[in-house]
Amino acid sequence: MKKLINNPQDVVRESLEGLALAHPDLVRVSFNPVYVVRRDAPVRGKVGVVSGGGSGHEPMHGGYVGRGMLDAAVPGAVFTSPTPDQIEAATRDADGGAGVLHIIKNYTGDILNFEMAAELCQMQGIDTEAVVINDDVAVENSLYTAGRRGVGATVLAEKICGAAAERGMPLKELAALCRRVNENSRSMGMALTSCTVPAAGKPTFTLGDDEMEMGIGIHGEPGRERMPVEGAREIVARMTEAILADLRLPSGHSAIAVVNGLGGTPLLELYLLYRELQRLLEARGVVIARRLVGNYITSLEMAGCSITLLHADEEALDLWDDPVVTPGLRWGA
Amino acid sequence: MKKLINNPQDVVRESLEGLALAHPDLVRVSFNPVYVVRRDAPVRGKVGVVSGGGSGHEPMHGGYVGRGMLDAAVPGAVFTSPTPDQIEAATRDADGGAGVLHIIKNYTGDILNFEMAAELCQMQGIDTEAVVINDDVAVENSLYTAGRRGVGATVLAEKICGAAAERGMPLKELAALCRRVNENSRSMGMALTSCTVPAAGKPTFTLGDDEMEMGIGIHGEPGRERMPVEGAREIVARMTEAILADLRLPSGHSAIAVVNGLGGTPLLELYLLYRELQRLLEARGVVIARRLVGNYITSLEMAGCSITLLHADEEALDLWDDPVVTPGLRWGA
Amino acid sequence: MAVDRASVIAWLNELARVYSANCGLLTELDSAIGDADHGASMERGFLAVQADIPKLPEAIGPLFKAVAATLIRTVGGASGPLYGTFFLRAGAVCPDKPALDAHDVLALFRAGVEGIVARGKASPGDKTMVDALTPALAAMNPEAGVAAMLEAAAEAAAAGMKATIPLVARKGRASYLGPRSVGHQDPGATSAWMLIRAAADQWRAA
Amino acid sequence: MAVDRASVIAWLNELARVYSANCGLLTELDSAIGDADHGASMERGFLAVQADIPKLPEAIGPLFKAVAATLIRTVGGASGPLYGTFFLRAGAVCPDKPALDAHDVLALFRAGVEGIVARGKASPGDKTMVDALTPALAAMNPEAGVAAMLEAAAEAAAAGMKATIPLVARKGRASYLGPRSVGHQDPGATSAWMLIRAAADQWRAA
Ligand SMILES: Nc1ncnc2c1ncn2[C@@H]1O[C@H](COP(=O)(O)OP(=O)(O)O)[C@@H](O)[C@H]1O
Ligand SMILES: Nc1ncnc2c1ncn2[C@@H]1O[C@H](COP(=O)(O)OP(=O)(O)O)[C@@H](O)[C@H]1O
Ligand SMILES: [Mg+2]
Ligand SMILES: [Mg+2]
Ligand SMILES: [Mg+2]
Ligand SMILES: [Mg+2]
Predict the structure, then answer these.
(1) pTM for the full predicted model
(2) Which ipTM did the prediction report?
């Protein structure tokens, strides 16, 4: 394992120290317990928006803390959900008196830890609502699994709900909005190479020189199918078809699209993938009204990509355009 | 070679098509000859700022086109300087009547092609000034070499000169400012893995499981020394010492720092490196007044990093803070 | 003989040792059908518990609750809340006496395992830690005494753990794999077996 | 016999073939001490020249200038302007006649090589294409006739190319390597040798 780190055990803490040093104008970082919070939190009267999960997906979530997006982010160890005490402390710090929305990716660990945290918050009279993001079509959503995983839609939900909270939307409405964003979003990912968890010291899996993993998870969980590598056009088509098989996105309607790198994919390739995606959707009459192209929800150094589509109404587009001032996403200010 | 592309020969064009499709509000892309230009170019009365070079370093340069930074960028084939006709056409399109600044990285090919382009421009009565960026301390600046390479300082020069041009600075002054930025900047890079040029189809070099290349170039040119991998702290110290041996940056003074990923390094690691850098500079009494942490000048999918330091005066900091609205760098608007 | 505070501490120390020693193994199992963190998570949690030993309460019930709090605070992931709940529920049913007899031990294991099932909602056969814990519990006969009871439990846990290999996962991260989860031993079932094995080893004399 | 337009076209076709066939080799050489693009660049340039053949001017001088323009427009990097300048200068000194004799051929190679030196400012021994081109030029004796003159030139170019192996690079990208450039053959010297070798092969009958 070659990584630009000191000790595997210190990676998350030292990286968060770097985040705090680099963006003192945007965020504060608490270390005991660990969480990232908006410089000016809590914002009086505003609903707090909090998310969290294992580390290794940067800029998600710590890079999305700031005006117009998250009030706090709770990072766990690499690929390990954070613990209830962290979530509780972050929630307390993010609560401006109007309650706090928890945006949770659908993994057993995330759900259990956020659940326990919510119980702790309730005991202190903090109103919380939990919304579980489960947009990954790579995984069957059946009674016999833990359900679909939460991936790229999390970024969209954090941006859109962050904007709505900033405008003053109350907690219950915000949770409903978040659920709508989730219901109207689907994602699919693929990998060319594995990631290496620092503490594990070796790649989570290995792929042959001509193999790819279709439907990979953002924690290096194996995907739907291991198959021969294909060209960008075929890969984008495969992922987009899987998404559209599960998401109503009729001709003439608008989408917000994320073409996301998993950490080891050059931007040169991501823009090329975006070209393929837009051409494909245009052929179906779908307009990509807004988009992100870059590394937004990663899996350490994994080479690969994911596509997320949100069937967007006017409200979503309008909230999308609101100012956002975070280390990882910034416009309008 | 596994890459998210269609044909190796089409990579640059298809990626630029993606850039154009993704950012129609910011840039236009010409394909014959190939260059990227600000949506609203030429800006009447403003000096045009144009840069260019081989592709494979995204977001540089095409991602830096927009208000407050470049008027045009000229991408060549992967790692291959663009040709004079491209540069000339881009310069013409960027000329608002006040002349055009060429920001050139110090590579033989870039110099020769920009020289020939400048001759063509002169024949058409377009005033150009050329500034050559040569900030890479990995390479000895002796009479017996092509001189130091141009790397990270290019991003700083493009941002700062872009802001000054926006404020109305005339061409000669702008060129002088660009030279000052270059003279006050130094960089150093290192690699953990090689990049793979799409047309070459295999890695440019190979490193052992416990080797790193110190002083790597952004085209995968071998560096100063191949050596055993070290921890982040030692690596940052090694690079920073090399920079400070060549750059006067006295205690009490301010710097703009770039902690840059080469394309395959997770943001988690880059923030960790930033922590090491700030601690090291703090110990020397140097204040990092502004910084970038992320992928700003890359080398395809190479894992590794570079550090750039600019000894910044008030003018540089002030121009740094001006609004910038490009696909790759955005604030203040 | 019975399980006194010193035996409990010996068990916790042994768990810290076992999870450290098997960190690589658990991570390897988790790499195949999960996300390669189970080893580091278990090690981190039980090293934290070990570090807490000097500060642990005297009475065994509160002691287990303190262990639970430490696990919940340091492990994270799916296994943090699950093992945390195990010790929380075990602590809650622990009688207030200096040493536990076989009936007490059975009661606290039962409460712990039921807690895990209540939290995680996994059934036997879902390819989780429950597949080691449920047969272990079923194999516990307090009439045989602590040592024999736990030895039987550890053997049943081992069998349950191995029986996860042919299963299709239906809970947790491995469930995303569907049929591709077949042929791999569940990491959580493995750490659960180690939990019981360590008790059996440490409480042989009890 | 002399070099007529058909011979020139045959040379250009052969260059397109040679650079395509040796794209991998040139890139491999450039990987060792450069940036792994020399093969693709030369192939791209001379395939573009080949595609232009139907539209090339009749007279050899203007024809070479058109080739120069195509190379300058399609190659890029260091070699684009350098080889472009070669053909530009060669075209400029080309006499306006349907076929070139040995003196004409020498004159145009001299002008071309001088153009490369003027553009790139490399001296012999700097480990560049100049190390193949300068000895080639020195070996050209027009009294021997075109075929023998170019055969000698190609052999001298080959020797010059091989002689770059022990050199420390002082120009171009390889110069960044300092002493680490020793032991590698210069990619540009190799493509320059191919340029002359192809002329010698195609103009044997001239
Ligand atoms: N719902 C559940 N009920 C019981 N055990 C579960 C459940 N979900 C997961 N597990 C157990 O947790 C183990 C994984 O733990 P760990 O790797 O620490 O968590 P994560 O999956 O969050 O990375 C699995 O091997 C499985 O035994
Ligand atoms: N100043 C120079 N004068 C003559 N030849 C040069 C000079 N600089 C570089 N070269 C030649 O160019 C070759 C590299 O060409 P190429 O790989 O196409 O360009 P780049 O270095 O821009 O990638 C070198 O091998 C060398 O022979
Ligand atoms: Mg995990
Ligand atoms: Mg090149
Ligand atoms: Mg796990
Ligand atoms: Mg080259």
Answers:
(1) 0.96
(2) 0.95
